[in-house]
Design brief:
The protein is an alpha+beta fold. It contains 5 helices and 8 strands. The strands form 2 sheets. A 6-stranded mixed sheet has the order 4-3-8-7-6-5. Strands 1-2 form a two-stranded antiparallel sheet. The termini are far apart.
């Protein structure tokens, strides 16, 4: 390696530095190749999360509240926030659903409109959406929800559900 001193611009450069400068396209390609798996993983995570939510809709519409709840973390740290306040824990959240929706008529036909899925750090995600229950004999209801979902043992599970 040789060192060149530029008296006009008062800096020192090396031939290696000049060689690296000529490889700018290589730096860009290297950056893209190194970051591509991150974007691919995020897209897969978003797809997996939407699949979980679609499965929940299917289970709800079959009247299977307990199976619907299998996509919530079975933990006392689970929190459901609704118009009546905060429900803590998986069992309490299941009971809340069973009390609020005691039969197929009250459960209606659920649909989700997922508006945003924001995966953070590959292990958590925020989901924003609208929910709607079609209930012909007693009236439709709906609103918005925000979910915090975590990847636990390889599965995306709801740990916070704020529904209004």
């Amino acid at each position: 390696m040789s060192i060149v001193f530029d008296t006009k611009n008062r800096h020192v450069s090396t031939k290696n530095h000049l060689l690296w400068k000529n490889y700018r396209p290589m730096k860009i390609i290297a950056f893209v190749l190194l970051t591509l798996p991150i974007f691919a993983q995020t897209n897969k995570d978003v797809s997996d999360i939407k699949s979980v939510l679609n499965t929940q809709v299917k289970l709800w519409n079959e009247g299977k509240i307990e199976e619907f709840m299998e996509y919530y973390a079975k933990s006392e740290d689970l929190k459901f926030i609704g118009k009546s306040g905060v429900t803590k824990g998986w069992a309490a959240t299941l009971k809340r659903y069973q009390t609020s929706y005691p039969n197929r008529e009250t459960m209606g036909n659920l649909s989700f409109d997922i508006q945003e899925v924001d995966v953070t750090a590959g292990q958590t995600a925020w989901v924003l959406g609208r929910w709607n229950l079609k209930r012909p004999s007693i009236g439709d209801v709906g609103g918005y929800f925000t979910l915090l979902i975590k990847k636990i043992d390889g599965r995306w599970l709801v740990v916070r559900d704020h529904t209004s």
